[in-house]
């Protein structure tokens, strides 16, 4: 949302800088693309665009960099380089959560009829923000990175806001429009879309975080980025001594306080004539409001530590309440966190590499697929525990439940992009809090389309690895278990076969077991991939056929049948 | 309206039939339009679905026998699955497109096309090729994925279903054309014309069909409405793993037939023979006994046409 000049704003129209205008245009574009990617309920946005835009976000890119190298893994290095050169451009232009806060801040200022960003300078909460960063890095080393980043990564938080909170609202709006269009005689113009709300347990965390972010943004600008967000803190450490920095030219500065009031990060200490560049999000608002040309991007170089000095031209108009942060504490925290950060990053890389090795080994070792002998065709109907307490099903391409738990940051892009909406954010289905909000397949609602590879196409951090369509056809994510006593064919003596009707692999066939008069569904586990079409189609409750997820995904066999014999005679058959 | 060329063609076809199939000599007359009005059922064997459709409709006097100027037409193909045309899990798009063109040519005020799909609706519409083909031919392609597109109707005398939600396109149209594809079906034994009507009811009703006696429910819906015309795509019927199918190996590519009838029971009875069933499938039998149509193929006036390339 491009900010407009407010008549009451401290900045008279005069000084809107080119830099600021560029920033506003680029940031608006980034926010709109991110919203489009995550809200796209009509599947209009191409999947590769969704993937590319989200995978260049800092945390997804860093995860890809550490776990498996792709071109998008370079993005995190580029962001670090950009930050080291120019400051936290990521936070002001690329990060959708950051831009969203600016939007919230502006809207709330409009509602409160106050000009935007009239915030006094405040001290940085260095201890808190460095502690959060340290805990995050520690968690990554301890193998809990999937949990920590799922809660703290700014892109993933934004993804959840968009997918879990905004998307259903957009769908409701669409359906109201569709109802009107139908009433006007144009039902094809705007089709209805099924509204899918996340389960309460998975909806509550993003809702609470959204409320927190919204309150902090409307009251204190970029307080979230400079206190809670570990990416903001990390980039702050890098930007603190950036090569080019925004700083105050004391010879030109008249200490009018316009820059300070324009600053959404509350990082300008006008009393000392200094800017805490670790908190500056490079929005350039201060540059554009300064009539005297006193705030400028300047080369500070690697060793340039001294600010340009000069006597203030006029008396200070800064309120006394604005204190100055103690610089020593800042430096100490910087050194300790940076050292710690470097160590943990190395540790994480090693850890993840070993985990990948272990997984590859396991992957190769998945010898005979499925239980029972080939051709036995009995299914797994005896294991009733699986029916009443089935294992959670992770998306195809995720390879294992363990990878979802350790790597996925629950950004919900796969959930919102899933065309059949079988993916939904989990509550406790993964059996622990680490799985909270992460994607799982719910076959009571829908099923995984045989030919679809969208979740693996869009996943930005490589948790759901790309799957070719052929590979998808044999990727086993679960297995079907039948409960014939519940099946209405035997219970009520009626024809059904809804489950077999939907089976894409031919694993599930209607057959007459010896001594049976009726054909009943029988699963051949060799061919079952656990897509859930059978469970979804089963018309009874509780379901007479249930998919139980498997911890490590397997490769199923492909049903190969001879070509149907052509009718021998050339007649009409009747 | 027969041109001289048509007449000669038919004569040749009839001749060829008689020559190649002496054992079916009694059917030689079938090559030409039956005297004394339209047949009860026509089946055309050929190489080109569109030509076969045109030829079959001709036996009834063209599409004008079903569609009058200014009428609203609804066409219900089988678009159940997110599968491409070559797998024959859905009605072939060429047939649907041609039908749309013919209906509009006959002066239909609008032609709607829809199905309540099993796979994701917009994907199935697209992958089947039907949405694009029908739209290009001038049809309104309607969504059917939400309950708001359906209205409650009573089924007078329904045995297993008394009340059902039917798509508004069917309720608000003057002419209802049923255009399924012939397939094996794990639950209903066969998908043809009667089974295809499961796509005019809501998802909840589809599920309740499965709970309340599939065959009886399939027959019961005929008490509410019978299509004005049934056109069955039996070019490459799916002989196993139906109704979704696994590969092209499931298809019998030698059949190459198209069937047309006003009588939904007769056409399904004939279709079951193509699928290799000696006796009628249960829902066909139930429907015949309830008087929705005739299943005794021997009593029907059937026209069998071979089209030479």
Automatic annotation (TrEMBL), chain A:
Q: Report the superkingdom from the record.
A: Bacteria
- Keywords for this protein: 4Fe-4S, Electron transport, Iron, Iron-sulfur, Membrane, Metal-binding, Transmembrane, Transmembrane helix, Transport
Region (Disordered): which ranges? 302-328, 359-392
Where in the sequence does UniProt note compositional bias of the Gly residues kind?
367-376
CC annotations in GO: plasma membrane
Q: Which residues cross the membrane?
A: 21-39, 59-82, 131-152, 164-185, 197-219
- One Pfam family linked to the record: Fer4_5
One GO molecular-function annotation for this sequence? 4 iron, 4 sulfur cluster binding
Where in the numbering of this chain does the 4Fe-4S ferredoxin-type domain appear?
244-273, 274-300, 399-428, 437-470, 483-513, 519-550
Name the PANTHER family on file.
Answer: FERREDOXIN-TYPE PROTEIN NAPH (PTHR30176:SF3)
Kindly provide the name given to this protein in its UniProt entry.
4Fe-4S ferredoxin
Q: Which organism is it from?
A: Ereboglobus luteus
TrEMBL record, chain B:
Pfam short name (any one) = DUF362
- What's this protein's name? Tat (Twin-arginine translocation) pathway signal sequence
Judging by the UniProt lineage, the source's domain of life is Bacteria
Chain ranges of the DUF362 domain: 73-272
């Amino acid at each position: 949302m491009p900010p407009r000049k407010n008549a009451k704003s401290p900045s008279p129209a005069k000084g809107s800088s080119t830099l600021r205008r560029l920033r506003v245009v680029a940031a608006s574009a980034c926010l709109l693309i991110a919203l489009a990617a995550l809200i796209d309920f009509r599947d209009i946005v191409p999947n590769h665009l969704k993937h590319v835009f989200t995978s260049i976000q800092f945390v997804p890119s860093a995860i890809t960099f550490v776990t498996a190298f792709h071109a998008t893994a370079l993005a995190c290095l580029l962001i670090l380089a950009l930050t080291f050169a120019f400051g936290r451009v990521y936070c002001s232009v690329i990060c959708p959560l950051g831009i969203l806060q600016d939007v919230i801040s502006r809207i709330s200022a409009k509602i409160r009829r106050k000009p935007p960003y009239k915030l006094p300078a405040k001290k940085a909460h260095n201890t808190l923000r460095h502690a959060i960063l340290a805990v995050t890095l520690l968690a990554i080393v301890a193998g809990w990175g999937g949990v920590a980043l799922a809660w703290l990564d700014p892109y993933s938080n934004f993804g959840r806001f968009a997918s879990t909170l905004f998307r259903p609202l957009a769908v409701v709006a669409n359906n109201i429009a569709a109802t009107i269009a139908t009433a006007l005689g144009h039902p094809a113009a705007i089709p209805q879309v099924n509204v899918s709300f996340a389960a309460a347990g998975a909806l509550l965390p993003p809702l609470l975080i959204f409320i927190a972010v919204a309150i902090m943004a409307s009251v204190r600008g970029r307080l979230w980025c400079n206190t809670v967000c570990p990416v903001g803190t990390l980039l702050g450490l890098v930007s603190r001594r950036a090569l080019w920095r925004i700083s105050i030219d004391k010879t030109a500065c008249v200490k009018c306080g316009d820059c300070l009031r324009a600053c959404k990060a509350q990082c300008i200490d006008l009393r000392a004539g200094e800017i805490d560049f670790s908190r500056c999000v490079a929005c350039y608002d201060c540059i554009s409001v300064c009539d005297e040309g006193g705030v400028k991007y300047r080369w500070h170089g690697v060793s340039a530590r001294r600010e340009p000095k000069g006597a203030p031209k006029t008396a200070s108009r800064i309120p006394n309440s604005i204190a100055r942060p103690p610089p020593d504490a800042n430096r100490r925290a910087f050194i300790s966190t940076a050292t710690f950060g470097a160590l943990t990053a190395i540790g994480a890389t090693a850890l993840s590499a070993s985990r990948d090795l272990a997984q590859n080994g396991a992957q190769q070792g998945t010898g005979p697929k499925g239980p029972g002998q080939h051709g036995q065709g009995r299914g797994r109907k005896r294991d009733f525990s699986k029916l009443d307490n089935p294992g959670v099903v992770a998306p195809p391409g995720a390879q294992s439940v363990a990878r979802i738990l350790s790597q996925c940051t629950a950004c919900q892009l796969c959930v919102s992009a899933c065309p059949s909406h079988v993916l939904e954010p989990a509550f406790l289905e993964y059996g622990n809090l680490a799985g909270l909000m992460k994607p799982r397949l719910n076959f009571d609602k829908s099923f995984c389309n045989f030919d679809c590879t969208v979740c693996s196409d869009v996943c930005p951090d490589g948790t759901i690895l790309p799957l070719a369509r052929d590979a998808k056809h044999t990727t086993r994510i679960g297995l079907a278990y039948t409960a014939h006593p519940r099946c209405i064919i035997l219970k009520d003596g009626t024809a059904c076969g809804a489950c077999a009707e939907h089976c894409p692999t031919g694993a599930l066939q209607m057959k007459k077991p010896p001594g049976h008069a009726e054909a009943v569904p029988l699963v051949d586990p060799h061919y079952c991939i656990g897509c859930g079409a059978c469970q979804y189609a089963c018309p009874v409750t509780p379901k007479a056929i249930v998919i139980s997820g498997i911890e490590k995904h397997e490769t199923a066999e492909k049903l190969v049948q001879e070509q149907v014999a052509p009718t021998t005679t050339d007649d009409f058959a009747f | 309206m027969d041109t001289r060329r048509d007449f000669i063609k038919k004569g040749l076809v009839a001749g060829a039939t008689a020559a190649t199939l002496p054992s079916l000599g009694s059917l030689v007359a079938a090559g030409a339009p039956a005297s004394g009005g339209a047949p009860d059922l026509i089946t055309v064997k050929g190489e080109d679905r569109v030509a076969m459709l045109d030829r079959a409709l001709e036996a009834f006097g063209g599409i004008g026998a079903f569609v009058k100027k200014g009428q609203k037409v609804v066409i219900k193909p089988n678009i159940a699955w997110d599968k491409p045309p070559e797998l024959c899990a859905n009605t072939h798009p060429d047939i649907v497109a041609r039908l749309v063109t013919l209906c509009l040519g006959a002066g239909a005020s609008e032609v709607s096309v829809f199905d309540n799909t099993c796979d994701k609706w917009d994907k199935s519409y697209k992958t089947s090729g039907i949405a694009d083909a029908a739209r290009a031919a001038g049809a309104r392609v309607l969504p059917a994925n939400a309950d708001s597109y359906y209205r409650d109707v009573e089924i007078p005398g329904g045995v297993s279903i008394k009340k059902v939600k039917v798509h508004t396109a069917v309720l608000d149209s003057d002419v209802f054309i049923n255009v399924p594809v012939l397939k094996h079906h794990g639950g209903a034994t066969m998908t043809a014309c009667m089974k295809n009507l499961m796509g005019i009811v809501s998802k909840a009703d589809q599920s309740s069909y499965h709970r309340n006696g599939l065959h009886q429910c399939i027959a019961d819906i005929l008490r509410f409405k019978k299509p004005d015309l049934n056109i069955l795509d039996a070019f490459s019927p799916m002989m196993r793993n139906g109704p979704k199918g696994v590969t092209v190996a499931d298809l019998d590519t030698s059949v190459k037939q198209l069937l047309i009838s006003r009588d939904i029971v007769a056409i399904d009875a004939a279709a079951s023979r193509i699928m290799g069933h000696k006796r009628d499938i249960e829902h066909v039998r139930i429907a015949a006994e309830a008087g929705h149509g005739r299943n005794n193929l021997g009593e029907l006036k059937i026209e069998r046409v071979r089209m030479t390339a």
